[in-house]
Write a structure and sequence with these properties.
Blueprint (H helix, E strand, L loop, with lengths): L2 E11 H5 L6 H4 L16 E5 L8 E5 L7 H9 L1 E9 L16 E3 L2 E8 L8 H5 L3 H5 L6 H14 L4 H15 L4 E7 L4 E5 L5 E6 L6 E6 L10 E2 L4 E5 L4 E5 L6
Antiparallel strand pairs: 1-4, 1-10, 2-3, 2-4, 5-6, 6-7, 7-8, 8-12, 9-10, 9-11, 12-13
Helix pairs in contact: 6-7
């Protein structure tokens, strides 16, 4: 379920990453090429981006399909950024959270997205949720599995964990508590990207951006074009990336 993408590199219009590519996130909302679960990503979308000189990202999220939002089309044409996280949400059961359930979630400089599902939700994560301070539980943006997974990640970040480590340890905890979960997590801070491949597809692209020598990295659920530079991330892997480097580290299955 869902498709998501993160970008760090030269400042470009949002649409250059999300709309203009032949198989970009915009098109993935109704015609994904590699989505294994679900078919139409029409239950919300969101994009978070960074402006020069401001470490706190802006967000635009809606409960409906991305193709029906003309305001987003205007934003994507004129808003420029050197870093973003965006997602389209798979059609799912009706809920009261509306756009609050749409990624990316945000806290401080962080933007977060979850592509997947937690098995046995919500009972499977009751013990993990009980470890969080009451204030953090009461601050959840939505009442779904992704929002709680984000709270678990954020708790580790606030305790000083590096981004990739916070994602990896959260995935292992959730996978142990809820076997069979799909936990492709994506985290950005305006300078770096961290992600996990756990149960669904994840790809990355590096190389020059808009201009010679202007490095950029894209991490996405699936390639947005047919550039031969796209590389698939093996399942059970954590990724840590900057504009110029990508590091892949295998993750071990949690004990049975």
């Amino acid at each position: 379920m869902c498709r998501h993408i993160a970008y760090v590199g030269p400042a470009v219009p949002l649409g250059e990453v999300l709309v203009e590519p032949a198989h970009g996130l915009y098109r993935q909302s109704w015609a994904p090429r590699r989505q294994r679960y679900g078919t139409v990503n029409a239950d919300g979308f969101g994009v978070g981006w960074y402006a020069d000189g401001d470490p706190v990202p802006a967000r635009y999220r809606r409960a409906g399909p991305i193709w029906a939002d003309l305001s987003f089309a205007d934003l994507a044409r004129v808003v420029r950024t050197g870093a973003l996280v965006a997602a389209v949400r798979d059609a799912t059961l009706a809920g009261a959270d509306a756009e609050a359930a749409a990624a990316p979630y945000c806290a401080g400089r962080w933007l977060f997205s979850h592509n997947g599902a937690v098995g046995g939700w919500p009972g499977s994560l009751a013990r993990l949720a009980a470890r969080l301070p009451a204030e953090e539980l009461l601050s959840l943006e939505a009442r779904n599995d992704s929002a709680l997974v984000w709270a678990l990640v954020l708790h580790r970040l606030r305790d000083g964990d590096e981004p990739a480590q916070a994602l990896a340890d959260t995935v292992l905890d959730v996978a142990a508590a809820a076997p069979g979960s799909r936990l492709n997590l994506l985290l950005g801070d305006g300078e770096t990207i961290a992600a996990t491949a756990w149960g669904d597809t994840l790809w990355y692209l590096t190389g020059p951006g808009a201009g010679p020598g202007r490095a950029r990295t894209v991490v996405a659920s699936e390639p947005y074009d047919d550039d031969p530079g796209w590389r698939e991330v093996p399942d059970r892997t954590v990724l840590a990336a900057t504009r110029t480097d990508v590091l892949l580290t295998p993750l071990k299955e949690p004990p049975a």
